[in-house]
Each structure stands twice: as C-alpha cells, then as structure tokens.
Automatic annotation (TrEMBL):
PROSITE patterns: MFS. It comes from the Bacteria. PANTHER family: CHLORAMPHENICOL EFFLUX PUMP RV0191 (PTHR43124:SF3), PURINE EFFLUX PUMP PBUE (PTHR43124). InterPro entries: MFS, MFS_dom, MFS_Efflux_Transporters, MFS_trans_sf. The chain crosses the membrane at residues 55-76, 88-107, 113-131, 143-163, 169-189, 258-277, 289-308, 314-333, 345-371, 377-399. Keywords: Cell membrane, Membrane, Transmembrane, Transmembrane helix. This is Major facilitator superfamily (MFS) profile domain-containing protein. Residues 20-403 form the Major facilitator superfamily (MFS) profile domain. The lineage of its organism: Bacteria, Thermotogati, Deinococcota, Deinococci, Deinococcales. Pfam families: MFS_1. Its main location: membrane. It is found in: Cell membrane.
Length: 412
C-alpha cells in the first residue's frame, strides 16, 4: 500500500473506476485538442501568412516550450497538490480554448507563436493533474489505467496526420472546433469525482519539486523518462518528413499524402503499445517493462538507421514496430512516481518530471534536421537511439534500489 493512502478502502469497494477512467481519458483527449490544432492546419497557415520554415517550426516548438513554462510554475506553486484536479483541468482547458481561438485574429507568426505558448502553458494544468486524478481511482491496475490515458493522448497526437492525408478542412473551422472540444473536455473532467485512493493535502513548499526529483528513486525514474522523451517527440515530429523522402526516392506518386497516412499509423499504433505496456508493467514490474521497451525502441531506431534505403513496405513495417514500443513505457514512468514519491506531493512530482521531459524534447526536435544535414537519416536515428539505451540502464539501477519494493505491488 502507498504511504498516505486511505487504508480501509479495498479495490473491490471502488465502484465506477472504469467509468471514471473512460470519462477522464475522453476529457483529456478533448482538452488537449488545441495542442495539435496548428499542426493539423500548418500547410494552410503557411500559405495564408507566408510563413518561413523557421516561423513554421516556431509554431510547433512554442507549444512545447509553453508547456514547460506552465509545468515549472505549476510545480513550484504545488498547484497539482493544492487544487482539486478537476478544477485545474477545467481552468486549463478553458484557458487553452481561449488562447487557441486567438489564432483566428492573430494575423501572423509573432502573435500566433505567443498564443501557442500560452496554449501549452494552459495545458500544463490539464495533463499532470489528470494523471494524478486517475491514480486516485486505481491502486492495483494503475499501470493499465495510466497506460489507457497516455494511449488516448497518443491517438490524439496521430489525428492531425490523418487530417493532412485526407486533405484537411478550412483552418478556421479546425481552430474553432478544437477550441470547442477543449472546453467540452474541461466540462467532462469537472464532473469526474475524486477517487477513493486520494492523496493527502499538501502545504505550499516551492522547493519540494527539486527535493523530489533529486531523491534516489524518483531521480532514477526521471532519468529513464528523459531517455524515453529524447527519442519520442523527435520521432513523432520528423517521421513524416523522413517517410516522404523514402517514398519520393522510389518515384511514388504524391509521397506527402502517403507519408501522412503512414505517420498516422506509426504514431497511432502507439495507443495499443500504451495498453500493452500497462498490462506488462502491472504483471512483470515497471522497471523491467520500461527497460525492455526502451531497448526494443532504441534497437528499432538503430535498425532503421541501417535500412533507410530499403523498400518502403519494409521501412514501414519496422517503423510500426518502433511506433509501438517507443510509447509503450511512457505511462509507467508516471505510475512509478505515483507509487514512490511523497504522497502529499505526487502532483508536483509528476508535473516536474513532465517539465524536464518536454524541455528535452525541444532540444531533440531541433537537433534532428541538423543531424540529417550532417549525415543523413542514419545519423539522426543513431543519435536518437542513445536516449532510450541510457534510459534502460537507469531503470535497471532503479530495480536494485529499496524503492523498487514499492513499485507494482513489489514487482519493481
């Protein structure tokens, strides 16, 4: 049992936990819709505003950086542990919806970039509190529950590529629709009650995030998470460009559209990976599952580096395997933190971990085109593989610590 949890409530006495998981997962996907809105209509924005490559990249990175700033502030203020999660999610979703709507009148990349950063900051009030809220509904089976949450988010991440492949819609309609979805998601989340395994209230301690992250157990879990994040978002951000080149090199017609459909499949298959990762994490132990997933994911990156000139079906098959394992471990890092961090500051710990991870993604996303220009896609994939391989080593170290006895009901 986790320290600070209510000891008298049994798993069987938590009716409605699957309903709560379903509603909160739907709420998070809807509330996070503004994150992906500009990506879905970026070609249209480039044409409408005459965006350069640098300005277009800024619109993508601004959300990541805004999320980092919002997460850092939230962690410093212990918001996720001092404010009920459903209220934070509602506030974040409504703010994100408003900032997203601002794109309709932005008129250019400067104001649009600031609005995208504000959108990311607002969404830092949605994602970490949602993970904490769901942890309060599950004690056993928590890895599966959070895996479903991240899997739903993964599927949402894939949808813009499907939109692009189908030809998209008017960009103003997309922006308006995603804003309405975010507000709806916040409303759904506000109706999800607190679970029976709720965490104790926290006092305001701005330095607590640093203390938690530098502790041995959470520190090693965070190092593993950083190795995972080094690879993940860079692969998601650049796979479409890579596969467009694969198809174009074979002289296939409309390679961009084919790459959009392929990217939807490669990213979307990760939703299944998240569920499988949750099941295996609960049954095998989270340190074992995360290390295995990162070794397989890093191995796929290295294999793809050697096979970039292979036939497109072979490249796609290997990429689908990569897309499955690259995200299969993601929710398990958050689950570990919920099991071994100070119960009063689980929300702060989750938020701080996410802030570090998304900070790293901005660097790896920016590094990929530099590596491609220097040595092609083989060099880029090789460098991306370094992260998960180092992350797997951190998780094996965590498995040997006393904290491992509190992970996955003692399975480590």
């Amino acid at each position: 049992m986790l320290r600070g949890m209510t000891p008298s409530v049994s798993e069987a006495a938590a009716p409605g936990r699957w309903s709560a998981l379903t509603r909160l997962a739907v709420a998070v996907v809807l509330a996070m819709a503004p994150w992906f809105s500009a990506a879905a209509v970026l070609p249209q924005l480039r044409a409408a505003w005459g965006l350069s490559d640098a300005a277009a990249a800024w619109l993508t990175l601004a959300v990541q950086l805004g999320f980092v700033v919002g997460a850092v502030l939230s962690a410093a203020l212990n918001l996720a542990d001092r404010v009920p999660p459903r209220r934070l999610i509602l506030a974040g979703a409504l703010l994100a919806a408003a900032a997203n709507l601002g794109l309709l009148v932005a008129g250019g990349p400067v104001l649009a970039g600031l609005l995208r950063a504000l959108t990311g900051a607002a969404l830092a009030l949605v994602y970490p509190p949602a993970l904490k809220a769901m942890s309060a509904w599950f004690r056993s089976g928590r890895g599966v529950a959070l895996g479903v949450m991240v899997g739903a988010l993964t599927l949402g991440s894939a949808l813009p590529h499907l939109v692009n492949g189908l030809g998209g819609a008017n960009w103003r309609t997309v922006i308006l629709t995603t804003s309405l979805l975010a507000a709806l998601g916040g409303g759904i989340a506000s109706g999800v009650g607190e679970g029976p395994y709720r965490f104790p209230p926290a006092a305001f301690r701005p330095a607590q995030a640093w203390r938690i992250l530098t502790g041995r157990g959470v520190g090693l879990a965070t190092l593993g998470y950083l190795g995972h994040m080094w690879e993940l978002y860079a692969m998601w951000a650049w796979f479409a460009a890579f596969f467009t080149g694969v198809l174009a090199a074979r002289g296939l017609p409309d390679p961009a559209r084919g790459a959009a459909y392929a990217t939807f499949a490669v990213v979307g298959v990760g939703a299944l990976g998240c569920y499988v990762g949750g099941v295996l994490g609960d049954r095998w132990g989270r340190t074992r599952l995360t290390a295995l997933a990162m070794l397989l994911s890093g191995g796929c990156a290295l294999a793809l580096a050697a096979l970039t000139q292979a036939a497109p079906p072979a490249v796609l098959a290997l990429s689908l395997l990569w897309g499955f394992w690259i995200i299969a471990d993601s929710a398990q890092f958050s689950t570990i933190v919920s099991e071994i961090a100070d119960p009063a500051y689980v929300g702060t710990a989750l938020t701080a971990q996410l802030a570090l991870g998304f900070t790293l993604t901005a660097g790896s996303i920016a590094l990929v085109p530099v590596l491609v220009r220097a040595g092609g896609w083989p060099l880029a994939f090789t460098v991306l593989a370094v992260g998960p391989l180092l992350g797997a080593a951190a998780m094996r170290l965590l498995a040997r610590t006393p904290e491992a006895a509190r992970i996955a009901d003692g399975r480590g």
